[in-house]
User: Fold these one by one.
Assistant:
Number 1:
Amino acid sequence: MKFGPASPTEALGGVTVHTLRQGTLVLKKGTTIGPDEVAELTRAGVREVVVVRLEDGDVSEDAAAASIAQAIAGEGVAVERAFTGRANLFAAKPGVLVVDRAAVDRINGVDEAITLATLQAFKPVVENEMIATVKLIPFGIAATLRDAAVKAAGGAAMRIAPYKVKKVGIVSTLLPGLSPKVIDKTLRVTEERLGPAGAKIIAERRVPHDEKVLAETIHELLQLGAELIIVFGASAIADRRDVIPAAIEQIGGNIRHFGMPVDPGNLLLIGSAGDVPILGAPGCARSPVENGFDWVLMRLLAGLEVTRADLVGMGVGGLLMEIVTRPQPRAPAETDGNRNVAALILAAGRGTRMGGPNKLLAELNGKPLVRIVAEHVLKSKVSSVTVVTGHQAAEVEKALRGLNVTFVYNPDYPDGIASSVKTGIAAVPQGADGAVVCLGDMPLIDAKLIDRLIDAFAPDRSHLIAVPVSDGRRGNPVLWSRRFFPELMALDGDIGARELILKHAEAVTDVAVEGRGAFLDVDTPQALEEARGG
């Protein structure tokens, strides 16, 4: 291939290397110079243009890229028409991407002119998702290099393994203290994981954390036709002789491997009963956040064997993001505890449903509502009290005169409660382990309730969010571990943090309460009368 500057006449038949702009003339990179282009260049006063010309034995960039892409593509892979030296490859169906790493390295090692990039091996993909691209650096290469790259592919270097497993059985073992809500959320999360593969939970069982009972339950699911069984233990697997592996062996199954160098996901167990894989799920599998469980699950759903060699090879790249329920997170130890909990009182809203006056200044037993709330909070175990103001800030501060509170103003209060939450969280003292978020219009909340939330807050036991509950209904205030501050800071609009409570159900501890205090917020004149009635 020839490369270099040429006069417009000499450039005839060549391909432009750069986009050329001169006056009104725009000649784009990759344009083949014909008679018309020669005339335009001459009229524009262009004396030379950089072009490339293919020589005998050369192939164009598009032809080379197309040939290499076709050589790579295996089952379930579609190749897009090459353009500007690039041929993209797409998944023709959903499944798991299987890549021959050695073949990819061989192709990239042929010559610097040839590049191949792919998605990560074993990544779950959807139909029409781009999975790889072949890009030629120059405008053409010697045909011998193209042929070498095709040969280096060694046949299809990538394919899509379609999902095969459709029937999944789930067992959850039970111990005292494991909330049914945690299991319910685990099932929802698992259904979402299975959804892209078209797999369904054909049966789920909740049984005591007992080897004999668990073995009988696994056998039952096998009889029901489960093609994959997942066991969520109430207690993490600690040894090959623990309850879950022992139950698998009791039915004649075997343990393929216990543990994996992926964090979160270390305590995953892979066993089998006949041809049916059985997964002992690590605790992080209850979370929707990607963890080692996902890496194994999706391969099994595609009918791919996961060997011990596969697992031990996952260490590089296996350190994933932290999950909030880890008892010993990769964070300074002093950020956990329940001895330093700050309080926020949200008192910035306009209270439009009240129909006029600022509800926070409405009196109950001779005191403004917001002062009653502040006095109760100050009598609790909280280490500090910060009041978020906004609407009629001066009047709210006047109502709290003489109290040991700090004020922070939220200029965005018209945007909704989320802006006040963010303003308050940003003002929480650095040393606080968490914050209890109180509403300034809930005068029946007392210090005892706040203290109970603080007592229930136990990060070392994954109790990171404390919520008052009565008859299955959740109220306020809510205590949040500092670990959730970044997510609280990302809230938006006129909604609070309810979605975060649902998202992190495994981190929530419910505090049973009686009475109306945790549920009565004075939003309307009728609610004010109800509060005045006790």
Note: The longest strand covers residues 200-208.
Number 2:
Amino acid sequence: MWLSACADDVASRSAYQCPVQACASQNRVCEDLDQPECGPCKAGFEEVDGKCVAPDTPACQADSCENGTCLEADEGFTCECDEGFEVAEVNGVSVCAPTEGACEAEAGLCSNGDCVNTSDGHTCACDEGYELNPEGTDCQDIDECVANPTICGAGGTCANEAGGSSCTCDAGYELNADGVCEALDPCAEDPNICGAGGTCVPQADSYSCTCADGYELNSDGVCEGVGVCANGPAICGPGGTCVPEEDGYSCTCAQGYELNADGMCQSIGPCAEDPNICGAGGTCVPEVEGYSCTCAPGYELNSDGACEDINECIDNPSICGPGGTCTNTPGSHTCACAPGYQLNANGVCEDVDECADNPVLCGTGGICTNTPGGHTCACEPGYALNASGVCESVVFMIDAGEEHVCGIAQGQLFCWGDNLHRTARLGLGENVSVPTNRARRVGTRSDWEWISAGEVHTCGIAGGELFCWGFGQGRLGDGGSDPSATPKKIGARADWTRVSAGRLHTCGVAGGELFCWGEDATGQLGLGVGNNGETRLTPTQVGGRTDWKEISAGSYHTCGIAGDGYAFCWGYNQFYGLGDGTTVDRYEPTQLTTTRRWRKIDAGLDHSCAIGDVRAGGPVPFSGGIGMGHLYCWGDNSIGQIGDGSHTDSPTPKRIGSSISGWEALGVGEGHSCAIAQGQLYCWGVNHQCQIGNATCNPSMVLNPTRVGASLDDWHMATAANQHTCGIATDTNSFYCWGYNNVSQLGVGHTSQRQTPTEVLGYDPLP
């Protein structure tokens, strides 16, 4: 127990000796042996918020954490206890208490508190409103009423209760928000307490009344009128003031008024003779030698000295703002707004930003630009304006997986290549190992908007809903690990805009929020330190941002772009694939750079590429694929996949193809990369399976961007996989593939390699 007293003789201690050891642990002295409380702070300490602290000295003192080790902390100290002891808190101080002792041996110790073992017994950490009894063996109620006689304030009576107290207030007092009695303010309680003509004046414990002229206090202390002035204040007429007198009253008249034969005040001069003398909106003011006119708002004095309407529409032609039509009204005006404009809080017409009000105004693939009173729509490559002026898919996109490819044409989904048993990545409902050497339509839907092919699974978006199929083990996000041979709807959301299937994981964007699922061995899900290593079977939100626009799931890392144009990467980083200048794996989104905004980004095996805005560091929001930019790559460059003419890895984004202007799309594979500039396609990197598409097929590497498919000048999309490449050329509205073809992943009707872009078979080219 905390009963080591100041005296040496334990047996001779009185019941009210202060607990020396407890006082020492609080940095206080045991000042008075006849009192149970600790005294003031020890020398060198000062009291701060009820605790004794030593400024500019370590929190750990020689007597801190007996039976343990004291560790400095941000605020005070913590104890790391020896074996057989555990951390306990006694009187707000951490101590090392025996793990077992009196508290376990004897039940019921320390009612209204927690029992804490000590080396010689036990002590109690008492609940609020309780304190140690004189023996230090139990918690007894604190009599707050005795400890603080003024606890209830003036006019209050304190009643002690178990663990606290309550206050009752005398007449004229009430409890305030702090539970303390304070005097009532009768003047505020009853504004009419002094009667008509009376003013209430608060006093210390009450109030008093003062009376206006013509009023006096009655026997009840309330003001009441004196004589006829009180009974009829208007008895003197307009402009008159009633003056009480001993035998009645008299009237005094304001300037411009005079007493008539009846003793009442009446107007002098023309104001009385002609009520409309000041015109519409005017008020006549009698004066000693005539009158003057005052005009209401919206009126002004004319040359004759009368009020007339102000025509705001003529005086201020722009009063209604752009797109506004002004109509004059008596004393005011009204504004009517043209289509595309609306009245603001000030009653002025302002342009309606249709693009901000309706982000999908231009349709999927549309870029909305606000104009005065309207807007314009421009379409991304692969989209065109329909008769309603909304962008719709022409040839939308294509994406190559490890050994299969899927593409969308006019909202219809086609897949081809390997359909190995248990992967069923083509989504055709065929769970057999039969490759498909030409494009085959998947299902009957005609509203596919996005497609992404991973290593052994595929995901797409149709009508805003997310679907995945192929090999499971968490990649599909359906809550299980089994494969699915047909597109399987994931979740109930219908606001998905992007999805990217990687090697072992998948990420997508819904309503601006980012979600990832699948394996997380290297932090590629971005869920933070401590959450990696666990496979997530359903979409799990990454961070708290709600403005994600682009996402790319690579083999073991992920990259994305937010609405402000800044890019982030996370996951495996041993070969600089995250572009942050280090080889440290990142377990949550890490910003790529703060000096450039980005339009497109794609993550490969151990390298990545992105298209950045031509204006470095400017406040440029995300602008999608419209417009031209600079091309950058970073990461592993052992086989020339960065395209800077060398084999040297790049820890940070490095500009590629600076002599080529207007980069607008890209596709990053495992060992090679491709990008599009002004409709022309360029590829670089390893070429041992003809994946570059430059009419050669040899182990040599292409170290710089090299033109592919010279006969086609309107490429709008490229996708690079492991050892093959595909793209869409809108000048022929066709899918093209080239490179390795061992399992018909090129979709050209056979399994022979192709050294140049070859049109995919099995679907009708679009008109």
Note: DSSP finds eight helices and 62 strands in the chain.
Number 3:
Amino acid sequence: MSKKVPIVVLTLVCLSISAFGQQELYDKANALFKAGAYTEAIKTYRNSDFVQAMPKERRGEIFYKTAEAYRLIGQTRQAEIYYEKAEEKGFNTPEFYLNYANTLLSNENYEKAKSNFEEYKKLKPNSPIANVGIQSVELAQKLKQAPTSYVIDPLPFINGKTNDFSPAIIPSEPQKLFFSSSRITSTGINIHYATGEEFSDIFVSELDKREKWIAPKPVPGINSDVEEATCTFNQDGSEVYFSRARIAKRKQMGCEIYMAKKEGDRYGNPILIPIAADSVVVTHPSLSADGRTLYFASNLSGGIGGLDIWKVTRDSDKGEWGKPQNLGAEINTIGNEAFPYIHPDGTLYFASNGRPGMGGYDIFLSKQKGNGYVVENMGYPINSSSDDFGITFLPGKETGYFTSRRPGGKGEDDVYMFHLPPIAINISGTIVDSKSKKPLDGSIVKMLGNDGTTVNTQTGADGFFKFMMKPNTDYIVISTRKGYLNGKYKVSTFDIKGSKEYTYNVEMTSYEKPVEVPNIFYDFNKWELKPESTAALDMLIETLNDNPSIIIELGSHTDSRGGLEYNYKLSQNRAQAAVDYLIEKGIPIERLRAKGYASSAPKIVDEQIAKQYPFLTIGTVLNDQNIAILDSDEKKDIAHQLNRRTEFKVISTTYVSKE
């Protein structure tokens, strides 16, 4: 007998589906989708006979809902395919552009993601979500190009092919790792309609003597035939708090937080923490170190977005919990904030998809500042283009665990370990002569930190020095050498996220010869300082403050043009005007002398002047005789200009302040 099916029979089947079954299948798929049974909904939406039987004008909607179901279970590659199909069918609601854009962001298709965020903004110009999305496209690329120093390692002996997430530790037993998992060894009796996997349970693994993870086992006493996940412990592990969710008849019944006390090798009967009605989502608990504040995520009424971060407090670690308090708009957004973790130092970590990020959920940290919070994205590689959430830290270390759905994992959600290598911040450089730029051996180099640390060294023939610095500290590097003004350099290690090498040449100026103070200006034939002269004199004040034992003579020089007696008076008054300014700014009068030289000490051409003006020879004294032989008026004017100057010279190094 032939196994070939007659074409007329196939036609009748298609007609049957078209006429009698399409609405029923459509209603079934939508009901599954609405109930959060996304994997089941996908099976119906992807039924090829069903799709073909639907009117062409409705196929775009079917593809869109298929894409949405894939997006909501974190399968963004599949979601992108079906968004494209929906787009080809002309489906173009505002929500389509927004969700398609977020999927493209997660898939690192940045240009196309930005385009779709912009399309959404055209349709919803007053929505802040569009701006967050556009900012995310730019931020994601920026963060990936400037990674933090965190090192990320997968945990292959912990992770399986199913979802493994929400790591937690007991502070007093950091060698144990607790996490949630939907692996087949869980005790749940049903399949989770959203993920298509077993109901999750809380498991524990432990490092053995060889620092190897042993096979994970369910935590005895708290797992049941419904879903348990995301636990937190008090300091000694005598109490555990965890989420429990129930699903009945494909309807989400909300989540609740339970507490159980340890009884020997297991936990006793869980006790409900009465925070809200059982139809409300109350999940992802995190207990503060003192046991008096419980943070959690919830869609309680009065919130800002979908899920918000809330807290309840009590007067003692055994007292009754108070009323829920929303952490406010500085933490929560119109998106979702979830998986809070309160660090013993008071820093709150949480996951959010309502802030600019790399895609999906990103992990943020927030620190209290005054009465508010300062929130910061943890950056790449902690965050990725996929969902990243559920972070926890080992006691006293910048090391811990978190969850990520990033590509390359063993399953869907996987647990990763992170650590921050020791930060090495160094400063090195060479002490050089400010004019010759040659190294100065025998210089004493001292580094002072605002934390009270002081270290010093002496340079060799190469003038080289090097110091190690601490994070979050301000430093001053000071160099001293006989016959030289002190050198100084300021450096700060605040906001340094990783290892860094500072390199800086510290210039020291010899005072064996007069030192010119550039950019001191006077009006023609006047001695009042012009306003633009103050910047140079302020630098001289800094030099005097850096060299508190020196006494200086401030000398003013004119060129040879004009009467000699007049030039002496003019230069003396100009020198005194500069000294008066320094005294007004707080320099003791005992440290200052004013002297007018008129044209009695013409400038001598040095290497620096000869390099700037090649027509002048090193060692030439710019007196009237040598200026007269220059071959142009322009060159003569330059020579006269070089003679018009203000200089200081150190006449003593024995000043002692009377204060």
Note: The radius of gyration is 37 Å.
Number 4:
Amino acid sequence: MSGRHRRNFSLTGIILASATAAVVVIGAGSWVGYEQLAAQDCSGQVKLNVAAAPEIAGAVRTTAQKWMEGEDAQVGGVCVAVSVEDVESAAGAATIAQRHGVTLTGLGAGQGKGTVPDVWLPDSSMWLLRVSSEAPGFVPTDREPIAESPVVLAMPAPIAQKLGWPKKKLQWKDMLATITGGGNALRPGIVDPTRDAAGLAGLLALGGAAGSDAAGTQKKVFALRALAANSSSIRQDLLEKFPRSVEDVTTALSAAPLSEEDVVAFNAGKPPIQLAALYLDPAPAALNYPFAVMPETDPQKQAAAGAFHDVLRGQGFRDALAAAGLRGPDGAAGAGFIAPAGAPAVAAPVNVVPADAAGQAAAATRAVTGINQVLGSWAAITLPGRVLAVFDVSGSMLEKVPTAGNITRAEVTQRAAAQGLALFDDRWAVGTWIFSTDMVGSRPWKELVPITPLTSGRTELNGAISQIIPKPDGDTGLYDTALAAYRNVQDSWQPGRVNSVILFTDGANENPGGLKRGELLAKLKKLRDPKRPVRLVFIGIGTGVDRNELTQIASATSSGGVFIAEDPARISDIFLEAIATRSGA
């Protein structure tokens, strides 16, 4: 079985043009059958390139071919030749992101080597959200789901039976307790959620089950590390880790978030140990296969895409989906669908986006925030990095935070720093500075701990967090500190890692005698080095920060971002978003 997969979110788009066409479907990039097309009485021809997730590509191709063979082979005298190519969703996302000048976490710039299609059918709308959150210019049309596959917890049947499957209805909090439960815990695994929508949906579900308090954060970190210990970059590799004999059941992989279609395809191979599909509550975002027309597609091809989409709304396509182990977009399956034991007859669509534009924008923002936070957690645990964390200790950090029990901004920041440090695994190196004004003579910043591998420096760094104490009469020496921190990370730059400065501040620059903004911007631009990129990220605390000021500074570097926690109690969440993104916000 080839690698595959996923999705979720539905937004309604393009008004279908009236005129369109006979469609000739050609597989995997070839144009076999062109002569037959040319023999038809067509007044013109449009070539429509479709990139589809591998598990759905066959159904798309077969349905279009049947349409060609019917009486509706021509519409308005225009013939449309459709080429359907199997493209992994992560690869498609990397290609489209690269076209828009950005990269996604976990997908390097060198991975986007393909060609941008006219229509993209990834396994999940989460891919559309991830690309658009990094590249605002990416606004595909239509985006209506054409299929569905619920995200389940796949588990060897003998293990699932011990948990009460298929009669007992289990919840994600039950699985979280089992994963973090010590000696009898499951041996969970996952396909890298930066590259797999089902893995991402599973992490979102586990995160929701853990909660956001201190105890929940600890459970989440434990679960993420357990999943990371058996993670795979592609689905096929993960599936190979499941037991192949009764003897393997106690030592092999015992649970992983996958799609229903994955389980159907795996079991169709009649393995010695079948997989059970556990439909846990609350249901994660299902894979929904959006029909996304790319923004650069010309009007004639948009019309052709609209007509082709109409064909995919028919019963013939639903039945073709059933043969591929997929459901229709409403959660109901076509004829011949072989459901896993315990599967619902109809898997209700989830995460339906409001019909009004304002509701759509708000829902998309919430979804992107949740995605970025969980990917930030995953990146901290699995991706090696170097970060210099720089904390504002000016007098305004003594201000109370009502939404955090009236502790000070500095105390809220200390909590966020402790949680973040606990999340980073030992492949990270971390340093800590504090800044205000006149911290060391006239210098506005002070080094607490230089960038140090966590294998040797975790205890010292934990101790340094208690030194994030405001200077009551201190102002904000932002410009000089930002420049010094950037230079520090660039001078000690290491290949193979994300080298970053993350600077927390609650105010605008106030440092008489220090750098002016223009001077800072000029120096940062001069320091930019494509061979030693440094990501400069600002996390604004409260409403006193100047977003324009911070954005100008971040934009002067090769890579940066600005994230504002207007409610300081949300610093930890904003911190995770900052780690997860690559081009900033």
Note: Confidence is low (pLDDT under 50) at residues 1-39.
